[in-house]
Amino acid sequence: MRKNIHSVTTQIRAIETVSNNIKIFTLTDPDDWPLPQFNPGSHIDVFLYGGKVRQYSLCGNPENNGKYLIAVQKEEYGRGGSGEMHQLEVGMILPVSLPRNHFPLAEAKKHIFVAGGIGITPFLSMIPWLIKRKITWELHICANSEDKLVCEQLLDSNQSKGSIHKHITQNGTRLSMNDLLSEVGSDEHLYVCGPESMISEAIRSGAFLENRLHFEKFGVDHNLKETAYEVVLKKSGNVVKVPKGQTMLGALRLANVDISASCEGGICLECKTQYLEGAPIHRDLVMQPVDREKFVTPCVSGCASDKLILDL
Fold first, then answer.
1. Mean pLDDT calculated for residue range 103-110
2. Domains of the chain (ranges plus CATH)?
């Protein structure tokens, strides 16, 4: 019987410090075997020594499965995962998951990418793939200042069929999302990865793009707090009270509800659950609008109504 493989053992072969708070890790097989292949836009779960699980975009060329590249930005007010990553050293063993992809490339004549800060990372695997196939692409890099531009050195020097535009707020060249959206052709797709504010602006102004707008966030606002509400479990009829300030997942666990979860940051979708009634407040980082009409991620999402009925 073939054994299902869910994780991969990698070794840290190199660590490059590209700024005060960003490091690029090169991961390889300890015995130099090829690593599982991945598609443009994929990410991996990293299993840290302290038990934390964190997700990072693969920012290397998908055609090269001899190594994985991930860029880790140390978050001053994060949950500790990025800080632990920055303490790792070359030679250490680091278990990771098989690559997964919630942010894939669509079929299009042209692909337009908008990156805010560390949000450039998923595009760094997409661009080499497009270059090899001579597909047109356009990258817009947004930052507050020149020293906030990250990971540019990972871009292929051969930018065939593509162009790069830098938008620096400090220099007065901030990206106008409305202007960019007005230029998106009918056979072109727009991809946005960055902070909550950038995603919200793109969704608000680019609703007309419908399924030609793709996005991935890289940070959840854990400070948002709604009032208390109830979660009704449809199959059992049980009612779970979620106090103000507690996560839905936390309340379900306290009520001994069996629900699988991994990252607890709205990225891996391990806890994704169908809801039947109610008004969830979505705070996940990867689900598209059509998915949010049916599913919710209890690890980070809340509820704007008095109750939320889950298909559990």
1. 96
2. 7-97 (2.40.30.10), 110-217 (3.40.50.80), 229-310 (3.10.20.30)
